Request: fold
Amino acid sequence: MQGTPTGGIQQTIGDPRLQLAIYSATRRLIEHRAGAVGSERLPDYQELRTRANQIKQHTIEHLDHYLEQFESNVAAHGGKVVYCRTGEDVSDFVLGLAKERKAHLIVKSKSMTTEEVHFNERLERHQLETVETDLGEYILQLAHERPYHIVAPALHMTRYDVAELFTKTLGVAKEVEPEKQTKIARATLREKFLGADIGVTGANFLVADSGAVVLVENEGNARLSTSAPKIHIAVAGIEKVIPRAQDLAVFLDLLGRSATGQPLTVYTSFLSGPRRAGELDGPDEFYVVLLDNGRTKLLKDPEKRQSLYCIRCGACLNHCPVYRKIGGHNYPWVYSGPIGAIITPQFHGVSEDGWLPFASSLCGACAEVCPVKIEIPKLLLKLRSEVTEAKRAQGSGGVERFAFRVWAWLMTHPKTYLALARLGSKSAGLLPKVGPLGSWTSQRELPPMASQSFHRWWAQRRRS
Amino acid sequence: MISVYPHPIGGHSLQLEFVARVSLFVTCIVDQLFPRVGIAMAEVLERLGYEIDFPEAQTCCGQPAFNSGYPGEAGKVARHFLDVFRDAECIVVPSGSCTSMITHHYEDIFQQDSRRREEAHRMAPRVWEFSRFLLEVAKVDDVGARFDGVVTYHDSCHALRELRIKEGPRRLLGKVQGLTLREMEAAEECCGFGGTFSVKFPEVSGGMARTKIDSIQKTEAGTVVSIDPSCLMQLQGVIDRAGLPIRTLHLAEVLASR
Ligand code: SF4
Reply:
């Protein structure tokens, strides 16, 4: 299809090492999740999903209210909420603040939202050093790559790949043990933490009724990023807000389990405001950047706006047979897998990346595991029809549209259809293997033509 | 028509109430490419004492257009389906995917057409996927079949995730004389067909099938059974390309053999 990165897809599928890396990593995540949401471990799993879906629906439908509530609660604790329409607004804000505070070094913890707006590249253009402190993200920063997976950013790299990368970029001896690799990274990163002026994190949840930013992680680097530097900036999409602290009981129960099979991640941080008088740690300044970057566009469509319920657990990627074949980098945006396939065309417009909703067998594995019950296949179908509609408006895609028109006519005129089908079945073997037929036979054999259709068999039987 | 009818096989209660006459919707794929599946289904149903009807104006459920982003064209074909089967009391279909199209997606297609939506809504409970019909309407799990060999069962996606069919076909296979059912690890993984997906993304689709076939091979089963002919077409196509000694059969074909 037009716009499909066919070369990249073929390369990924044709690379057995990469295939094995993707397949085994996702399989591990699948198994861990299955163990954590099973009926013995979490008997009310399905009710939790329904609850999570309802809370998200309610919040997205009253987003303005909850954002205002969140903002005033952050202010009450001495923090500040900054609304940003675009990625540029985010970097402008951070650059301005860095200039005022004479900051030179930023430490960052894993955040898809900052990836989405190319935060690091933007800041580095202004000589502001940003260092990723999540191990996976750190590896990717060294490799100059974007995340392969929304939860496990370096999922495609084996420890041997990492060993090579460290040797090449850090000049250390080759070390293939993950523990030792972690030590190498830690040694470099400790220094950065101590010297950093600003810590930038994402946010998993923004709690409206308390003004807290909630962060979940396993490495402790996010916690350090929020407490070592004098300034903490959390960057989050506006859809991250939830009404009440008690709703976390639902979401925290689902997020870790769906993502990595952990009942709870190693660290869960609740951050509300800068350090107050008498407190020992915490930053001097606390900012929450609320990013739109196209999200408000998605609010208009009552059906598709459920795409904003996503809590970025990654379960849909792990279970997606297409993601498992084509990997993360063939998706045009930082969000890959099923969730990427539904949000990318909505953020960028269906004319752009219109191939994405079609890159699915509609198997439904994603929707089955999504903890907030986003109806991904349904949205893929809706987007497909929007893509064909947009093509019609642009005057492209005529051949396929015409074919489906003819097909629909034939399917509603059985006599003509059956007569043509009979003729066709006699000559099918002679057809040139081009177009869809060529595409089919590039991978597999055609089924042998039946000597007579069921219709014919029935007609004969009726006569006899 | 509901009538009290003695059950010919399996020694069930003679008081069983069931439909006496069923209409077959064989689907376009079975009609043109795998008529043997339709014939096998008719055979099993007749063996159970059903009178078979085959509305000859039937064509397709409309799914190919619906899944390709042409709901308008799908709607035309869906209307035709509703018209053709308007008077059918009970429609049996040898495909989970086509059944689900009718029972789960027609109402979406007719969002703007309340009369048709209502019609589709009333039609849905009368449409039965073949294995579910046997178990829930005919209430039989042993149809008196015999099939010698090791078989593995492929869960087709729409049957599994939209119709929630999982144990039923296995129960039916379990009652077949001579048959050994051996589960594969990736039973629930997609075969990669996906309608036009199979030709729009051939490498991905083919790759998915090969992953599935790896799992099938590990069971050392000689036969893969499914309730969806399109999955079987995809799998058999890739199996034949690789020259592997595995054959694919529809559940109806296994149940018809004796
Ligand atoms: S769409 Fe659902 S499954 Fe996928 S990442 Fe978001 S929350 Fe997780």
User: Anything to note?
Assistant: Chain A is about 50% helix and 10% strand.
